[in-house]
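Practice set, problem 2.
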Amino acid sequence: MDLESNKQTVLAFYEVGLNQKDFEAASKLIGNRYVQHNPRIADGIEGFAAFLGQLREDFPALRAEVKHIFADGDFVIAHVHGVRVPGQSGTAIVDIFRFDENGKIVEHWDVMQPIPETAENENGMF
């Protein structure tokens, strides 16, 4: 596995997929079988296409900014600040991607936590 190449693939996936909502460009980064663990998104490349279509319609200005990215073996983990609507605090997200032997994304998990308006400390979520 080329860890740096896998990280760059994930960064490109965020940019073309989530930020630009360009299914054609994002689909080139996905392998033949795409296993989705987010219960709100259908499995497979078709599920991802439907998800992007929904984002284009419901949240056209959505932006995802990768704050930290890590690679280990065939996994890449990204710590992301997602903002659906400009001006909102957004969501802290940890995305986990698994790669196949061809350097394509084949599996995805995520955990999300809304960023509160106030906090008991000044450390921030990123």
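Problem 2, part (b): a different protein.
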Amino acid sequence: MAAKIKKGDTVVVMRGKEKGKTGEVIRVLRDKNRVVVKNVNFVKKHVKEIPGVREGGIYEFEAPIHISNVMLVCPKCGKPTRVGFRMVQEGDTLRKYRFCKKCGENIDLVRERVKK
């Protein structure tokens, strides 16, 4: 199944302590149904020093958020929206697009197949 949220998408957090924050998706963890969003859900981790490899200390990084807690921001209308898929037949080519369910505009091309 095609992903409704991809790396590089702008999303808004809908639930949790980071509710209302907007950021760009850095990574998508498909097996765990989570996404890592830039500058959202920062956590601190105490790390022991490994000589010659890394310094010890307190590191801050973005933790993954469950994919159901974020919503894609449509690039056309600028509003948080649900994502749908649309198949379009153009000549002998079959194209699959992601589209915004609020404004109905295509977001991007997912797949393209040429029928023989």
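Answer key, part (b): The radius of gyration is 18 Å. Residues 32 and 78 are 28 Å apart (CA to CA).
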